[in-house]
Amino acid sequence: MSAFPIFQTDFTTVAQTASSLELLQLAVAADTEKNVAISPLGILAALALLARGADGPTKAALSDVLFGVGANTERAENAFSGWLRQLLNVEDEFLEEAGAILTLASSLWASQPFVLAPEFINAAQSLYNAEVATLDFTASTAALTVNDWVRQRTRGRIDSIVSPESLANLLPPALLLLNAVYFRARWASEFNTYDTHSGPFRLANGTTQQAQLMHQVSTDIGYQAGAGWQAIALPYLSFRRGLSMLIFHPNQPTGLPTFLASLTATNWQSWHRDFKNAPQTEVDLTLPRFRVEWNADLAPALGRLGLTNLFAPGADFAALGYDNEVGGGFIDSVLHKTFLAVDEQGTEAAAVTAIMAMGGSADAPENPPRVVVKVDSPFFYAIVDEADGMLLFAGTVNQLD
């Protein structure tokens, strides 16, 4: 571990934030009324592992999205892996006992008799602790095997990611690159369940839904306000590397699209700094319990980010083990499935990313002022690394199920 730099440059962090936010915006644009949850942490980690098996223009395109145009790819890959190791703290049993869990598991499933390149396997195992296995993709039990891995790594919150048909339709030689993120944490300042009450949540169409509204007054909640919105930072308990949920609530129920349009990497970095530098404020907060489950194929969105050459014959994955002289390999789909729930005690979230590749024949004042934040209409949320603002999960809530 000491051989890898553990600090990413600001240049790389901004590039990863930009890619994360653009992916979210594209996901929201696909269905503006639907609640959305993505895990930039899981998506970037999956793409970074894939990049280790890419060459030529394919690797360059992945590097541009993951680390920024002109980045030193090898150094950036190692730094990203080091950041993941520092963030996850997977060996710390004390954190799990305190209710603070953040894990990321990776695996590679190669069809028989596809042989992955030894250098790629070494990098996948040393940088990402990836499990490597072979699998008969046409077997009736193949999907059960993969989905059982998913279920275990997400502690049952996501029970499947592939179907027998989706695996059988991959032309050989086929590869499935999987990762699973699981997160659970308690609020540093929990809500008292006795203060939770039923109340209206205002929708963008002018109607309302009845919601369970949590309430607390605390000086431990970060606060700032911008053009047409209020924002809060709810820190989590026990993580050695501070993590928080940020919620940006437009003042009007119809204001979420305008806010999302302003959600650039530059603004995000500025708002993150403002939270860190904000004076202590007493926040009178009302926040609904909410739960989001979401899934999509991210291939179209990733194509919009500049990765179109991954999804057609001619992609260069020679470093992964594909033979370019006999058609090479390309990506068929990038499936992403998420779960996120917020209640009085804290947050539980899970995400699975499945990259499916096949043969090429077809990232304190003494008396602080009080502000009132009533999150009773559509809003944006994100779970972030407090040190640099990197997004682990992010999404929008338009209605409460």
Automatic annotation (TrEMBL):
Q: Which residues form the Serpin domain?
A: 21-400
Q: Which InterPro entries match?
A: Serpin_CS, Serpin_dom, Serpin_fam, Serpin_sf, Serpin_sf_1, Serpin_sf_2
Q: Which residues form a coiled coil?
A: none
Under the heading PANTHER family, the entry gives: GH10112P-RELATED, SERINE PROTEASE INHIBITOR, SERPIN
Record family assignment? Belongs to the serpin family.
In Swiss-Prot or TrEMBL terms, this protein is called Serpin family protein
